[in-house]
Amino acid sequence: MSEKFDVVIIGAGAAGLICAAEAGKRGRKVLVLDHAKKPGRKILISGGGRCNFTNYDVSANNYLCRNPHFVKSALSQYTNWDFIAMVSKYGIEFEERDHGQLFCVDSAKQIVNMLLEECQQAKVQLRYQQDVQQIEQSEQGFTLMANANAIECQSLVIATGGLSMPKLGATPFGYKVAEQFGLPIIPTSAGLVPFTLHKQEKEDFEALSGIAIPAEITAQDGTVFKEALLFTHRGLSGPAVLQISSFWKAGQKVTINLIPEADVDELLTIAREQHPNQSLKNTLARVLPKRLVEVMVERKELVDKPLKQFNDKQLKQITEYLENWTIAPNGTEGYRTAEVTLGGVDTDHLSSKTMQCKNINGLFFIGEVMDVTGWLGGYNFQWCWSSGFVAGQHA
Ligand SMILES: Cc1cc2nc3c(=O)[nH]c(=O)nc-3n(C[C@H](O)[C@H](O)[C@H](O)COP(=O)(O)OP(=O)(O)OC[C@H]3O[C@@H](n4cnc5c(N)ncnc54)[C@H](O)[C@@H]3O)c2cc1C
């Protein structure tokens, strides 16, 4: 005998939980299955344990998707303000950080507890440590096996996320289900991820590990982010690098303005007038970490001598170099540390209004498993809330 549900959701992460609560509120009998021991593990570790749950400023421009218009409907049906209203209703204190990012003041756990409370009120059943197998289409909808128990449902929602952080339970399950039902997958890769450097550069910059500077970073496709850049013992990280990594392709270079806040040419020209005997190194150390300037001199990218020995053209060349410091990353740290997965289930085969497959009634994909990737800044969770909400109205 199989158990019967109206809706089965696979994945008790951000997208799965909000979808479950919404479907349950409509009176649907909902079951959530997850192979992990507990729900929302990525929410718990996100934002350094404080969960950057959304952003004050959300639009389709903050997302990468092969169809750039796809996200618009869901983002307008369930907005950042809708989620902020729920967070406020639960009395969860939050704060705004740079670029409109909203974080819990206390703990990301409050977001998980809020979603679980919503599920409980909507009488959603949650089961953990479930091994889900054998999904098949049936006359009523779908049948599947979970820990060797047969389950039937009218609607099946896949909310199993992407490949990033396998240690937290990420699997390619969602892509396999998509393939089984004939939906194409846009090739996946790690996004919002630190860069690794080639051997020589890694050795040269290793000593700078832990140093952060404000920077403006540009990808080969022209995308620009102005954020902090961090040197690490493996390469480059920090928000600037995480953001641009989603726009970078193997073999490409990135260009970095190392002093975006100052007019470097003016600074050097005035310094040469006022302190002609001051070394270039000591002059630049006023606007850059001294150790970074030293490494550039050691790498013979800059020549250190008194400012009076540089002519105008040479000062301009130094400015040009510092404003367009170019580096070709060796690669990225990959799924092990990536915050998200680029690519995923092709949105051309899904309804942008409901997240339901266009050709398979009752099958839905929501959250990160889809070919929708947000920028750093709360946009990925907002996509989970928006896509999960709309699916919850129709599943
Ligand atoms: C370190 C880190 C920090 C982040 N910080 C932020 C942030 O502050 N703000 C932001 O917007 N985004 C952040 N992100 C991205 C965000 O966490 C994800 O985009 C989001 O969690 C995706 O939600 P999801 O529900 O689609 O998938 P997930 O949260 O990955 O949930 C998928 C669920 O499916 C389950 N599952 C997987 N495979 C199976 C299977 N075979 N059988 C059964 N269950 C399965 C998993 O156990 C999991 O519970 C961060 C990511 C990481 C890794």
UniProtKB/TrEMBL annotation:
It holds the Pfam family HI0933_like. Residues 190-340 form the RsdA/BaiN/AoA(So)-like insert domain. Its cofactor is FAD. Keywords: FAD, Flavoprotein. Residues 6-393 form the RsdA/BaiN/AoA(So)-like Rossmann fold-like domain. The keyword Flavoprotein applies. This is NAD(P)/FAD-dependent oxidoreductase.
